[in-house]
Structures are given as C-alpha cells and as structure tokens.
Specification:
Blueprint lengths: L12 H22 L5 H4 L4 E7 L5 E8 L2 E8 L4 E4 L17 E7 L5 E7 L4 E7 L4 E4 L6 E7 L5 E7 L18 E6 L5 E6 L19 E3 L3 E6 L6 E6 L6 E2 L7 E6 L6 E5 L8 E4 L2 E2 L6 E7 L5 E6 L6 E5 L5 E3 L16 E6 L5 E7 L9 E7 L15 H15 L3 E6 L8 H4 L12 H12 L4 E11 L1 H12 L6 E5 L18 H13 L13 E6 L8 H13 L3 E6 L9 H19 L3
Length: about 600
Amino acid sequence: MARKPRRRGSRPLQDVRKDVRPLLALLIALPLAAAQPFTIDQVLSAPFPENLTASPKGDAVSWTQDTAGARTNWIARAPDYKATVDFPREDNKPEQLIHERGKTTNLRWSPDRTLIAFTSQRGDHAFVGIYDVATKSVRFADPSVDLDQSPVWSPDSRQIAFIRVPTPGPEFEYGPKRTGPPWSIRVADAKTGEGREVWKAKEGRGSVFWPVPGTSNQLLWMSGDRLAFPWERDGWLHLYTIQMSGGEAKLLTPGEFEIQDLAPTPDGIGFVLSSNQGDPDRRHIWRGSRQLTKGDGIEWSPVPLADGRIAFLHSGPKMPARVAILDPDGTIRDLAQIPAGFPTASLVDPQPVILTAKDGLKFHGQLFLPPDDATGKHPAVVFFHGGSRRQMLLGWHYMQYYNQAYGFNQYLASKGYVVLSINYRSGIGYGSDFREAPAFGATGASEFNDVLAAGSFLRARSDVDPARIGAWGGSYGGYLTALALARASDIFKVGVDISGVHDWNLEVTTVAPARDREKRQAIERLAFESSPMASIKTWRSPVLLIQGDDDHTVAFAQMVQLVAALRKQGVPFEQMVLPDEDHEFKVHADWLKAYHAADAFLARYLNPK
C-alpha cells in the first residue's frame, strides 16, 4: 500500500521527537548550568597576567602570568601574535649589574642601549642614577635632599628628564587643599649629571605630586622636545604637556575623570592611556581624545605596537584578566584562553549603586546579588577594599590582590549572600577632593560615615535579613571591618579582618617636630580615637583575624594587640596566623586557606541558605 505523501516541510512525529530531544535537554540544562555551585579554588584558578611590555622595535609583546602561584613568562610576536611560553636560554644566567647603596627601581634603557637610568631610593631622599654599561660605573643626575624619580630618556640618549618631589616638612597638610612645596620637572645631562628645572607646579591645588596608578614611569618624552606628565591642577588627575623651552602646561585630557597607564605611541607624537572617562567604575583605552574600547569590560595597561595595533589587558564582570590585541579595525583578539574549569557561566554581573552618607557625601559601590533562583531574605556582607588609595570596579580587577577579593565576592554571592563592595571616601577614581576627604583615616576616621551608610543600605533592602549582616576586608579594609565591629556591633554581626590596622599610632609617624610635644600628643590622641582600639568597650561581634607574621606593610603587633584586648573584653574571635607570610600573601595556598576560613566563619554566624 502506497504511503500518503507528506505536506511540504512536514516530518513523521518520531523524527521530530528525535530532533527536539537534544534541544529540550539543552534548554532544561541551561538554567541548571547557570546556577551550578562552584568552589573558591575554581573561581581563583584563572591565570593573572601582568607586566605587559613591548620589544624595543614594537614587533612583539611579553608578559608574566601567575597561575595558582606558578609564574611563567609569555611572548607573542608579529604578525600573528600567537602566545607561547618564553623559556629562558640555559646560558642566560642572571647577574647583578648595578651595585649602589639605595633600593634600585624604575630601570630604563637609553634608546642607544648604552646606559640605564634608574631611581635609587634612600629612605628620606632619592636619586636618579645612570649606569654605564661599558664602564660598569654609576653616576647620579643632579642629586639633592629631595625625592627624585621617574627618569625618562631623550630620543638621542643625551638627556634625562625626571620628577623632583620636595621632602615634606612640618607645614605639609592633608585634606582637599593639602599643600606643600611644589613638585617640579628637571632635565639633566646624561654625561655630566648637571641639571636644570624646566617646569614647576603652581602653589595650591596640585602642588603635591600624585602619580598615575599602574604606571612606573610618570613622564613621556614626546616628539618635538615635549614632555607629557600627570597633574591634578583642576582636582582630577590629567595629562599635561610642556615644551622643553618653557611656557605654560597644556591640558590634554579635560573632564571629570582620572587617567591611568600612560604609554607613548612609537612615533612619539601621541599617547594611549586607560581612564574612567564617562564610566567611573570601569577603565577603557583612549588614544588621545579618541575612545578605542567601550562596553561592560575593563581595559588597562595599553602597549602601542609598531604596526598600529595595541596590546592590552582586559577583563569583564564574568571573565577574568587576559591579554588581548586591538587591531586597527577595532577587532579585539584574546591571546590566551581561560581554563575550562573556570565557572564563568555561574558568575553574576555586579550592579552599580550610589549611596549617600549621613554627612551628605555620595559614593559608589558594586552590588552582587545571589542567583535568580535564590529567594527570600538573605544574609549580607559589606566588603571594604584596602589602600585606601584603591577603587573596586564592575568587573575583575587589574591588581591581583583585588582580583582575588573580587573572586571571593562572587563566591559569596553564589552561596546566597547579598554582597556590597563600597568605594568609600579616601579612595581613587573620583577626584582629589574625594581622595583627600577631610578627617579620613588617622585624622578622624570619616570613612565610618560610609560604613554606616552601607549598613543602612542593606538593612533597608527587602531581600536582606537585617539581623544577618557582616563585613570583611584586608589591610585598610581590615581597619574598616574592625571599626564597623567595634563601633556598630548592632549592625555588623560578624567580620573577617585580614591584616587590618587597629591602632593608627603603631603605623603613622607624625610630621610634627619632636620638640612640639603638645602638637604631637594631639595628633597621636586623634589617631588613637580614629582607631578600632579606642572603641573596644562597645565591640560585641565575633571576628576572624588573619595575618602573616612577616607583614612588611602593617605591623604584626596590630593583631597581637587586638587579640589581647578582645580576650579581656570577652569578644568571640578566631585567629589564623600565617608564619613567614607578608602583607600580600606570596603563596597561593595561603590565599585559599584564608578564604576557606573566611567562608566557614561567615557561614557559622550568618547561615546562608
């Protein structure tokens, strides 16, 4: 019996079922995949690239990569820029070239490759040195009692320009209008070392030098005998240029934003940089006044190449840092891929929020919400970054320390926490008035206004259980965590304090002359009153304290002193001491150990679902 012909486009039901089964399975699996849990180890498993640089000819880029504590060197050459591991040759044995009394930093080859300029840091002063490769000798450029830094070569290798920052004296004052002897730019003869001043900052705002974040060299020697440099004359960190012959500085990057990561183009005519222009909680790359990257990504460390391409580092809300190439047509190509086990699909997009403190100051934050399938009232945690001259962003951070913290915040959100990361006053990214806020830190702890605002913001949310709010942070963030617990245990029920400051007088040396005993005592009294130790009597909330005992940034005595005070006060606490560890942990396993302990401690008291 002949089959009845099918209509055009129709198929037997069993064939349709066969075709749709994989699709139905995929549709069913997608929501589950997006909500799949992940571990701390997984979210911190991505390699972290840094130290991106170009070859002298601009036909290759190299960088270092840290993968779970293992460091490798990578290189990518034109024209295809395929990334490969750069293994050192067996005959390349390292040897010390420069032997001098100071700490040698900012090494810069002269264009003719015969000399090396460097900064010799010597505590209360610093020199710019010149190492002669042929004679293996060192000479210094126009030495003084001040802090000389950031040497840059002229194209003909005959001169060096550098920044001179006067050593601050007792007249130096902190705050939005902090003042001091103006910094200057000098140029020295590379052979004789004789120098001269070519430009000097004006009195008032901007007289105190503030460097470009992420940039080891703060000067660019441009074509046409021009120097480009950062300056905060209008309250925002911008790029200016001057002629070597003198004259007024010309503003190149006007607007209410901050620049970062300076680099000249190979021809010396232009420059590229990253900034937060028009996007305050991200970084994008600009060539002069032209924006080259945009969107929800974060881009930094641009390196111009001879063929017109730009190498850079970038990340996103869910994609961690990686190296990329920007082609002239605007195409972005990643040079390295993220490991297969990295939980990209399970991460969340942090939301930008703006909060207002009780004293009226507005500040930014990033809000991490639990996955969509998590309902009801959640525990919440406020994260305080360190620094305080730092800024958390709407994506994976350009500094490894905060890259780790961002990953842990993502992990906490996946566990059911509402996480609020705040960019409190005295941080960067929002102008010098915000960074130099009155009475910050040891001069009054005005950031506590932002701590309280963060707590109030969370308590007012319908998805947060106001009885289950905690705090965590490291370094300056540890200080604010301890301050939150000491002064507001009714709001912050638990905290994790990593390498925090608890008594400013163990860290801060005042500029008041020793003979001015009354002034010194007033400064020390205010510093203590701005410290968590001053409020130990009202501290009730449990805390986990974590610190390495070889901390070169925050004295280990901070933790020792606080533990004794908490014991006397009867406050529940736990401690994790990492023997021989520094402030920023050197061993990847110690980061994991600290974060696992923080996860367990927070869960014990906040009980996430």
